[in-house]
Amino acid sequence: AKGDMPTIDPLHMMAKEMKFLTGNIRKLLGSGHPSLDRAAKYYTQAEGKHVRPLIVLLMSRATSQCPKAPQRQQATLHASAAIDTSISPLSVLSDFNPSATTTEAADSAASSETDILPSQRRLAEIAELIHTASLLHDDVIDHSVSRRGSPSANLEFGNKMAVLAGDFLLGRASVALARLRHAEVVELLATVIANLVEGEFMQLKNTERDEKNPRWSEETLAYYLQKTYLKTASLISKSCRAAALLGGADAATVEAAYSYGKNLGLAFQLVDDMLDYTRSEQELGKPAGADLELGLATAPLLFAWKTMPELGALVGRKFENEGDVARARDLVMQSQGIEQTRALAEDYVAQAIEAIRPFPDSDAKDGLIEMAVKTLKRQK
Ligand code: FPP
Ligand code: MG
Ligand code: MG
Questions:
Q1: What angle do helix axes 51-63 and 15-28 make, rounded to 10 degrees?
Q2: What gap in Å lies between CA 104 and CA 108, rounded to an integer?
Q3: What biological-process terms (Gene Ontology) are attached (predicted)?
Q4: Sequence-ordered alpha helix ranges (H) in 46-117
Q5: Ligand 1 contacts CB of residue 196 (under 6 A)
Q6: N or C end of the chain, less CB within 10 A?
Q7: What is the best residue among 196, 203, 228 to mutate for testing ligand 1's pocket, by most ligand atoms within 8 Å of CB?
Q8: CA-CA distance, 325 to 322, in Å (whole number)?
Q9: Does residue 203's CB lie within 6 angstroms of at least one atom of ligand 1?
Q10: DSSP assignment, residue 147?
Q11: How many other CB atoms are found less than 10 A from the CB of residue 82?
């Protein structure tokens, strides 16, 4: 940042909180079976970006100063560390040990910072668990060989172990979620899991009707955005909503938190789909140009298709024929597809920032704004 504005670093702002995140997640994933334990914890070893938990923590802190909903008893109940949110890493049967210390560890992370509740901290961990579970399954579906700069779990352990590890993460996430004792939050995050699968299904189908030579229409983009909401923005938006709910925020704040997450999530995936065209495997830490190889038409190609009808036939056969992938890539590069994708992402980022404008000024609010701005600048 040039000028007199101090640099806002959301990760640094939450450093104390984030320090405990991976350790707590690994505790949630303890299994008595050594090879399940290894596969389940595999993606927690490499340093992920932890975008989702970071956003949940920032949202928790930013909304702590917002107006509260009338019925405050609920929120106070959640604030109580008396709720056991611990899960034993030791039991062979993977039962839960009520005396394990996960919550105390989480509490001591920020005992001086009363603005983030233990339940919100747990929510951040749950969001990362659900995300990681979806990556384990995604890498199987996509036949991916690398993730976060290392061999993917499916390559390291095989498809069966990778699928089971993902299921195990979802199971443990569900238990941790139930222990928050907040029915609406349980419903939100359970819906996210269903949404992830729905989004993945929409993507498998690629276009609404599986036609031979589909034509571009306004629905093409609407379908893509709906898929993108389900696949990416649902987790971020509903986690933001849940964070505000756990803090006892009023209805307007809960909606604002949701709107921020939804717009940020959409922008995040648009940038992801753009980077797939513009970055190398080395830069991304995962295969580049993967979408066309997988038969997927994402935003850059959909924008190109609008002015280049010949892309329809390629989309229809999912870039299967010899030379299709290279041809499609060339056409996208000749088009304004990349620029239009970036412009749409910028639009969503602006809407995300606008959504939280009514929040009282705070470092956490600045952090949320910076996360939105960073989404556009990220290189991987
Ligand atoms: C990454 O997309 C994948 C997702 C965001 C969601 C995938 C969802 C499933 C596999 C459904 C099952 C869900 C659960 C919760 C088990 P990508 O392939 O575009 O990104 P990548 O380049 O990082 O692989
Ligand atoms: Mg993938
Ligand atoms: Mg995928």
A1: 120
A2: 6
A3: alcohol biosynthetic process; isoprenoid biosynthetic process; mycotoxin biosynthetic process; ubiquinone biosynthetic process
A4: 51-63, 73-79, 102-109
A5: yes
A6: N
A7: 196
A8: 8
A9: no
A10: E
A11: 8
**291 alpha carbon – ligand 3 mean position (Å):** 8
Question: Each residue of 211-249: pLDDT tens digit?
Answer: 778 899 989 999 999 999 999 999 999 999 999 999 999
Residue type, 1: A
Tokens of 8: 């806002």
Q: What six digits make up the tokens of 119? A: 């339940």
For ligand 1, is residue 134 a contact (CB within 6 Å)?
Answer: yes
> What's 151's DSSP letter?
E
Helices 337-355 and 251-278 pack at an angle, to 10 degrees, of 160
> Mean of the pLDDT values across residues 23-32?
92
Q: At what angle do helices 234-246 and 183-205 cross, to 10 degrees?
A: 170
pTM: predicted TM-score of the whole model, two decimal places: 0.88
Q: 3-state DSSP call for residue 325?
A: helix
In this structure, what token pair is assigned to residue 45? 């070893």
Which among 13, 59, 82 is positioned nearest to 264, based on CA atoms?
59
200 in contact with ligand 1, CB cutoff 6 A: yes
Closest CA to 359 of 279, 244, 194: 244
Q: pLDDT band at 19, cuts 50/70/90?
A: confident
Q: Going by C-beta distance under 8 Å and a sequence separation of 6 or more, which residues neighbour residue 30?
A: 37, 87, 88, 89, 90, 94
**What is the ipTM metric for this complex?**
0.94
Token reading at 201: 């299904």
152's CB contacts (< 8 A; 6+ apart) are 139, 144, 145, 146, 162
Among 269, 261, 172, which residue's Cα sits nearest to residue 226? 269
What is the per-residue pLDDT across 97-110, written as a single tens digit (0 to 9) for each?
433 434 434 434 44
User: Tokens 């649902």 map to which residue?
Assistant: 234
Q: How far apart are CA 292 and CA 284, in angstroms?
A: 16
- In whole angstroms, give the CA distance from residue 221 to residue 211: 16
Structure tokens at 80: 């109580």
